[in-house]
Amino acid sequence: MCQRPALSAAPVARARSWLQVPRLALRRRLNALSGGVSRPTPPWRRRPIALLCYILSTSALRPLANRVALYRSFPTRLLSRAWGRLNGMDLPTWLRKPIYSLYIWTFGVNMQEAAVEDLHHYRNLGEFFRRRLKPAVRPLCASSCLVSPADGKILHFGLVKNSEVEQVKGVTYSLESFLGPQEGRGKDSECSSFRELLLSSAENDLFHVVIYLAPGDYHCFHSPTDWRVELRRHFPGSLMSVNPGVARLVKELFCLNERVALTGKWQHGFFSLTAVGATNVGSIRVYFDKELQTNSPRYKKGSFFDHSYAGDAAAGKQPLDTMADGGVACADGAGVALERGMAVGEFNLGSTIVLLFEAPKDFSFKLQPGQRIRVGEGLGSL
């Protein structure tokens, strides 16, 4: 059977040009017949980018509130529980390295810092997410009175003004909604704001730091200073993403999401560390609190559950539990004593840590918005 020879590129190009010439001539004749007046080119034909911006500013941005409401209606708690079950399923030995290697490549995990670098050691995704680090890779800053409790990115930091805290630049949430009522702190008649209720001295100010943990970060959080935890308050809630992009869209995101607030005192007064849950991070674990259960199937909106560590212990120090780094948290009548750098708890994936603390007015941060930070690095000094 004979095959037709293939046409060369030059004749094909000439044929296309012959077809285009009469078409162009026909357009010119039609313009001449219509008086030589041609329709102006629409602006969107000349500037397609301008058209795109116009569409985004009118039709796309207008239903933003509707899209946020739709996102908030997603069953994120159910998805997070399903993800938790998946994380707990043991993987076949031959499948562990390919799956973990893909995760490492996607999120830029540094396995050279892991206490166990062999990927076959981690039986499931949960163990891999909660991997421990080598002892020497996170030294504590000696010149700072406050160190980072987690690996992550600094979203925001600064003074707390008007009892409002910024979750990202320009988007705030209520301090009272975030921490809940504070009975027994000061006298309500003497305090004009919730912020003043937390302060033990008029010579001090209230400061905050927000640290975002990405999926590839080390997922344990540590004590940022020597302090004493008096109360654990668990807020059941949504499990929306705490990605900075979502935090810019959802006002009071940190007040809506499930979180565990540890509050107490350090050398300058009030101190709190709050672990905020997120999508696929329904599990928040505090090593010295075995009663804490997060991401339960049912909860009442706006509810919270308290557990006091102060006043209910017998005289003398009582060891509660051995921490992940080998330290031992001890409880006495004044609460749970934590040392700087001691491992406190862990997330199942990545999330957010919010520090709220009282300090003298001359406290200064040594941070930049958006900078990467690691456990033990200095946050600020006096």
Question: Could you explain how this protein is built, in words?
Answer:
By secondary structure, the chain is α+β, with helices and mostly antiparallel strands. It is 27% helix and 26% strand. It contains 11 helices and 19 strands. The strands form 4 sheets. Strands 2, 5, 7, 8, 9, 11, 12, 13, 14, 16 and 18 form an 11-stranded antiparallel β-sheet that branches. It is globular. It starts with 8 loop residues before the first helix and ends with a strand.
Count of extended strands? 19
Q: What would the principal axes of the Cα set say about the shape? A: globular
Question: Could you list the spans in which at least 5 consecutive residues all have pLDDT below 50?
Answer: 15-22, 41-49, 51-62
Largest sheet: 11 strands, antiparallel
Q: How much of the residues is beta strand, in percent?
A: 25-35%
What's the helix-strand series? HHHHHHHEEEEHHEEEHHEEEEEEEEEEEE
**Number of contiguous helices:** 11
Defining key terms:
alpha+beta; 11-stranded antiparallel β-sheet; 27% helix; 3-stranded antiparallel β-sheet; 19 strands; 382 residues
Compact summary:
With 382 residues, the chain is of the alpha+beta class. The protein is 27% helix and 26% strand.
Note the topology.
Layout: H1 9-33, H2 43-46, H3 48-60, H4 64-72, H5 76-87, H6 93-107, H7 125-129, E1 146-147, E2 152-159, E3 164-168, E4 171-174, H8 175-179, H9 194-198, E5 204-212, E6 220-222, E7 227-235, H10 244-249, H11 253-256, E8 259-266, E9 269-276, E10 284-286, E11 305-308, E12 318-322, E13 328-332, E14 335-338, E15 343-347, E16 352-360, E17 364-365, E18 372-373, E19 378-381
